[in-house]
Structure formats: C-alpha cells, structure tokens
Amino acid sequence: MLSTSLLAVCSSFVPSAWSAAVSMAPLVSPGNESAYLPGFPHPNPVKSYWQDPPHRIANLRTTPELPSETFDYVIIGSGVSGAATALKLLQRNPELSILMLEARTAASGASGRNGGHCKTGDWKQVKEWIEEYGEDEALKIGKLEQDCVDDMANFVRTYNVSSGWQDVETADLYFTKEQFEKAVATVEFQRELEARRPHDVPQNNPRTVWEGQAARDYWKWPQILGAVTYSGHTQNPYLTVCAMLELSLAKGLNLQTNTMATSLKQMSTSSSGKSLWEVSTERGTVKGNKVVLATNGFTPALHPGFASTNFLEPGRSQVSAVHPSANTSSNPVFRRSNSYPDSPSGGDYIIARAPGDVHEGDVIYGGGQQFSPTRERNITDDSVINETIAKYLRSIGRLTYGYENWGETTEVVADWVGITCYTPDGFPVVGAVPGEDGLWASVCMNGHGMAWAFRSAEALVEMMVEGEAPEWFPGPFRVERAWEANE
Description:
Elements: E1 5-6, E2 23-24, E3 60-61, E4 70-76, H1 80-92, E5 98-101, E6 117-118, H2 126-133, H3 135-158, E7 166-174, H4 177-196, E8 208-211, H5 212-219, E9 226-234, H6 237-250, E10 254-256, E11 261-267, E12 276-281, E13 284-293, H7 299-302, H8 304-309, E14 313-324, E15 336-340, E16 348-352, E17 363-366, H9 387-401, H10 403-406, E18 410-422, E19 429-432, E20 439-443, H11 449-466, H12 481-484
Parallel strand pairs: 4-5, 4-13, 5-10, 7-15, 13-20
Antiparallel strand pairs: 1-7, 2-3, 6-9, 7-9, 8-9, 11-12, 12-13, 14-17, 14-18, 15-16, 16-17, 19-20
Helix pairs in contact: 1-6, 1-11, 2-3, 3-11
C-alpha cells in the first residue's frame, strides 16, 4: 500500500526577470455587482480557501497598459488549461510572444476553487468507453488520465513547487452492494486489459479491492461495504497553477489580470498569410494571430458558436473546509483522500490536510449538487453560497468518519464555489474551432481538470505547432463533436 509522504514544499520558484517591471491591477471594488455580465466571470466571487492569502501574482499586469502589437498567441484564461498551454508553447519556442487575459485575479477560476484532488477516477468507465468508442480509443482515454496526473506530479517535483503536494492513498468507497459489485467487476476487467495490452493501459497505479469487514477495518469507516484503493495526490491547486504562470512569466509571457475578454472578431488574413484576431476587453482591444480559449464554463458567453451547440453546460461546484475536534495528527484515516461514486448526493469527495501541511487537520468536503433543484447546472455566478449544500457538506464529515475519529464538534473554516463545465459525454473539448482559422480551445474539463487539462494542453500545442494531434490523443476529445451532436 502507498504511504503518505510530503514531496516538495520547501522552496518556491521566484522569477526575477519580470519582477521589477510589473504593475498590480486593482481588485474590483466590493459592491460593484452592476458590472456583472451574465455568463461571464462575476467580478466579486466568494473567497476561495486556497486563495487566502492571494498569490504574489494575483493582480499582476506585466505592462501597465494593454500592448498594441500583434501577439503570436492570445490566451484567454489563466487556469490550469491556459497556464499549461502558455508554458508548453514557451518551452518549445521561447521566442514566441504570448498575451494572457484573465477576467479576475490569476488562477481565480475553477483551478483555484476545486477540492484539492489530483487523481484519476474516470477509469471506472472503461467498459462504457469501449462499448462507445472501441478498445483503442478507450485505452487512450484511460492512459491520458493517468499520464496527466503523473505529469502534474512531475511538474511539482521538477520545479520544487510549494503547493503542499502530497502523495496519498486514495479510494473509491462504496455504500451499496450493487455499485460495489460493479466496481469489482471493473477492476477485474481492467486487470484483464493490463495482461492483454500492457503498454496501452494506465501505468504503475494498480487497484486493490477491500471487501466487507476487511474494508471497514482497514479504512476505519463503519458504514462502507467495500473500497477500491489506488494512489493519488492532494495539493493547493491554486499555488500549483500560479507556479506554471510564474515560469511562463520568466520566459516572457505578458499577463493581464482583471481584464475580461468580452468578444472575439476574426479579421482579414494579414499580409504574411497568418490569421488575425481581435479580442475586445473592458480595457481595450488586443490582437493575436492565434487565440486560445481556456475559458471552461464561461466559454458559451464569450463564443456564440459554442453557445449555439448547447454542448457545453456550465455549473457551480461547492466545497467546504471544516475542522474536527478530535486530534487527527496520528490518525492514518486522515492521511487519505476519498471519493464516493454512489453517495446519495452524487459523487462526493473528501480530503484531509495532512500533518506538516498548512492548515493541517482541516477536512475538505465537496459535492452535494443533488441537494439543488437545478443540480447547480447552467449557473456561472460564483458570488454566492448555496446554503442547503453548505449545511450538508459541513455535517457529513462526522457521519462518514464516525464519532471516534471525528470527535464531538465541527468547526466550519470556509465555504466556497467554483464554476465548472460539463459535456454530455464527460470529456473535454480540445482543438481547432471549426470554420474559424486561428481559433483554438481547450475547455470544459467536466470537473476533472487536474486529470485532463495538462495533457490536453500538450495535445493542443502539438496541433497548433505541428498541424495535427499526437497519436496518443483520444479522438473522443475532438472539438468538432460539439457541432456534430446537433447534426
């Protein structure tokens, strides 16, 4: 079994090339709700647990004014998709000119507002993927998920990122016999695939099945019928993404925070034969040969073509941080991360901040969408908390961990929300936007961005630079399917 270990939290990457030549953009004044455009990022979102305190680049503007020159790339969005795309482009070619627009503060969207997991999990759908797309494509999807998580771990280790990264044992915990038996069958099916196609399946992350009393004894949760355990990671996702941005800033990225893109316009082809785009913002217009949408749940508001497909559905995801009254420092149950595929509220997850971590002992609980009549779909306002969901998330920890592990009382530390994005098939939308030369997208991570986005950015860069997707990239992620679904 994988034991918990603290990896790289000792030092930060602090670039100096840009530190003396930046300006800090003012935060939007409280009470300025009139500036909110429905569907676009809200100017005053609730404070995220991970973004307190704000990062040193939170309000960074590399240049005081918007640049007038035409950039090679304009990237809209500074979350993990935008940050990874910029970094991978500049690692390939440091001479590129890249402008990044962020509507609010750096990494302030879903990447700075999730629950802190970085783990696989969608692998459980491998049978359904094979039935829908065939074995070759299904294996590409499963392998990309694990490779993406491994890439994130390698990034943190390589650059010694101070984001509280932890290697942890993680589990899918089951409360119903039907779902547990389905999970066991999936694990057995995955093992058969591993034996038959060892080079095409996710690598180095075997699943272990715990059943009945053995599961309850091992996991110390009296309610579960079984568990499937494997390796995963926890982190402060905001700090991880800000580290990506800092690396790109050191390579010449121009970051403009608190600068919301409001519309796109494709201009006539330039004399060099390159496409030319104008992006209108609240502060003026910028130009680029290529534009990358890394706008996740806000994409339909910015791009009418995507909106017309009804393929991208924004949603609001909610998380709470609480602190149990029991001393958790020596309790191994609080050094794991868990998901509940058959929870009554639909796909809950839980993480405990480990000893030595900032805010150690805090327990992060996310989910609860089923307690909302709308399931929190078609919502882009992250300035408010759903109190019904909050009450559930604050209280469920003691029930799941049990009195002996949790103690008598619960301190509420924080509640926050983030805007996510969903597609009917559960996959991101990545590639060239049809019929719009020079417009690209890596959006709609289905609440699973830490396991989809980094590798999706790698594929997107390959498409933009080399002209075609890499062989390992799954066909079901193609951007064209958003339009094909309506044909």
